[in-house]
């Protein structure tokens, strides 16, 4: 069976989690996972440029064939947060589009439900689920990495079994 690389992204303006997993023979293994950090005090254009450059480098180096990204979620009481996060998601999608990668969007509740059975699972439960699914010795940390791995796993499961309800 042919292998397939998936880039999972947990978008953030300060910390963007990423994970490239490879699926082969119904097994999924981590190729690389980490974070891309934007300057905490830099200007917005400088911060989104760093995110773009970091993810573009991951794409060029690890050559995924698809990108799965968590959809934007923000409480309606904080519309400014949603707007700022939109900038980060925009440059992440741009990097994938420029590389010719198909982009797949998943809601946080869809990802959580698929991996834990509950769309309202806390971060700690998600980290444990990712650890179990990938057979890791330790819980993925920081949580942004665990979230990126979860997004990649969600895409893999839905792609390999499209009739599965998420």
Largest sheet: 5 strands, mixed
Task: Let me know the number of strands.
Answer: 5
CATH architecture: 2-Layer Sandwich
Poorly predicted sequence stretches spanning 5 or more consecutive residues: none
Strand order of the largest sheet: 3-2-1-4-5
Query: What's the gyration radius in Å?
Result: 15 Å
The end-to-end span amounts to 25 Å
Shape type: globular
Number of domains: 1
What is the helix content?
Answer: 40-55%
Enzyme class: hydrolase
Active site: 10, 70, 144
Binding site for Mg(2+) 2: 70
Organism: Blastopirellula retiformator
Write the SSE topology.
Blueprint: E1 4-10, E2 15-24, E3 27-37, H1 44-62, E4 66-70, H2 79-98, E5 103-106, H3 108-116, H4 123-134, H5 143-160
Helix pairs in contact: 1-2, 3-5, 4-5
Tell me about this structure.
The chain has five helices and five strands; from the N terminus they run βββαβαβααα. The protein is of the alpha/beta class and 166 residues long. The protein has a single domain (4-160), classed as Nucleotidyltransferase, domain 5 (2-Layer Sandwich), CATH 3.30.420.10. A five-stranded mixed sheet has the order 3-2-1-4-5. It starts with a strand and ends in a 6-residue tail after the last helix. The model has no long low-confidence stretch (mean pLDDT 91). Mg(2+) 2 binds at residue 70. It catalyses: Endonucleolytic cleavage at a junction such as a reciprocal single-stranded crossover between two homologous DNA duplexes (Holliday junction).
């Amino acid at each position: 069976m042919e292998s397939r690389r998936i880039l999972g992204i947990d978008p953030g303006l300060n910390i963007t989690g990423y994970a490239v997993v490879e699926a082969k023979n119904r097994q999924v293994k981590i190729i690389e996972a980490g974070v891309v950090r934007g300057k905490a005090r830099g200007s917005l254009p400088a911060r989104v440029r760093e995110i773009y450059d970091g993810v573009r480098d991951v794409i060029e180096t690890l050559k995924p064939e698809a990108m799965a990204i968590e959809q934007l979620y923000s409480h309606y009481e904080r519309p400014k947060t949603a707007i700022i996060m939109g900038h980060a998601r925009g440059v992440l999608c741009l990097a994938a589009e420029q590389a010719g990668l198909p982009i797949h969007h998943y809601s946080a509740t869809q990802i959580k439900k698929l991996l834990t059975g509950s769309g309202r699972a806390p971060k700690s439960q998600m980290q444990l689920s990712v650890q179990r699914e990938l057979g890791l010795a330790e819980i993925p940390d920081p949580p942004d990495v665990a979230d990126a791995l979860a997004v990649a796993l969600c895409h893999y499961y839905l792609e390999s079994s499209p009739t599965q309800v998420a």
